[in-house]
Amino acid sequence: MSEKNDGANRDVTKRSARERLQAEREQQKRKDKRRRALVVGGAVVGVLGLAAVVGVIAANTGKGDKSAKGPVAAPSGATGKDALAIQTGKDGAKSTLTVWEDFRCPACKAFEDNYRDTLHDLENRGLLKIEYHLVTLIDGNMRGTGSLNAANAAACAQDAGKFGAYHDLLFVNQPQETDDAYAKNAKLLELSKKADGLDTPAFRSCVEGGTHNSWVAKSHEAFRAGKFKGTPTVLLDGKDIFGDQANPLTPQKLKEKVEANAGVTPKPSASASASPSASASASASGKSGSSPKAGASGAAGPKTVSKGTTED
C-alpha cells in the first residue's frame, strides 16, 4: 500500500511540475508577445517620427521665410514667361543674354565682376539685351533670407527705374556667403543711397513690405523647374556660355560673338594697327612703350568664371 501511495504521490508531483512548467511557458510567451508588440510599436513610432523630421527638412529646403507667401506682384516692366525676367538693354538688340543669379552667390559676383564692363558696353551700343532672373538658392543651402530680401529690393529698384545701378551695387558690396547681411532691410536701404534717386519713401516701403517676395519665390521655382545645375547660369541666345569648360566664352569672345551676330566689324586693337616698321624700330631701339598691366583691358587672357553654387 505504501509503495502505491508513493507512486501516486510521485505522479501528482510530476503533473504539478509539468503544469507549473507549462504555466511558466505560457507566461513567458505572453511576456515575449508583449515585448515584441512594444518593439514593433516603438519601431513604427520611430519611423513615423523620422519621416516627420525628414518631411520638415524637405519642406523647408530651398525656402525663404514665410513672407514669400501672398499674391504675386511682378515689378514694373517685367518681361518673359509669367513676367519673371527683368530686362536691361534695348529691345531691338540682336543678342539676348539670359542670366540666373543669386545676390548671395560668390560665383555670381565673380561673373559680374569679370563681365560687367563688357556687358555694359554691349548694352550701351544697342547690341545686347539682358534678361535677369533672380534666384534664392543660397537661402536654401545656407539658410537665411538674404537672397530673397535682396532680390525683392532689386525688384523694388526696377519699379523706380534703377534696377541696373542697384543690381551692380548689390554684387559690388556682396557680403561673405555665410554672412546673411542682406537679410537686414537696413543694409539694403543703406546701399540704395549710393544709387542716384533711388532712396525714396516708395522704395523704402516696397523693401520693408516685401512687395515682390512672392514674385521672387515664383522666379526661383522657375529656376528649379528648368533643372539648371547652379548659379550663375548664363545663356547667350539660349546656349550656356560655360557649357564647354575647355573653351568657355571669355568677355572678349562674348563681345566678338555679339558683334558678329549684329554684323558689326570689330575694331582692330592698338597693337594690331601698329605698323611693322614701327614695331621693328621699337625693337631695334630696345625701348618699347609701357606694357598694359595684367588684367587691364587689352592685356593677355581675360578671366573666365565657371558655375559655382549648385542646387543641393
What features would you describe in this structure?
The protein is 52% helix and 9% strand. With 312 residues, the chain is an alpha+beta fold. The strands form two sheets. It has a five-stranded mixed β-sheet with strand order 1-3-2-5-6. Strands 4-7 form a two-stranded antiparallel ribbon. The termini are far apart. Mean pLDDT is 78; it is low at 35-67 and 271-303.
CA-CA gap between termini: 91 Å
Shape: elongated
Structural class: alpha+beta
- Kindly report the oligomeric state of this protein: single chain
Summarize the topology.
Elements lengths: L1 H59 L25 E3 L6 E7 L4 H19 L3 E7 L2 H6 L3 H14 L3 H10 L12 H8 L8 H9 L3 H13 L4 E2 L1 E4 L2 E2 L10 H11 L8 H4 L2 H10 L23 E2 L2
Helix pairs in contact: 2-9, 4-5, 4-8
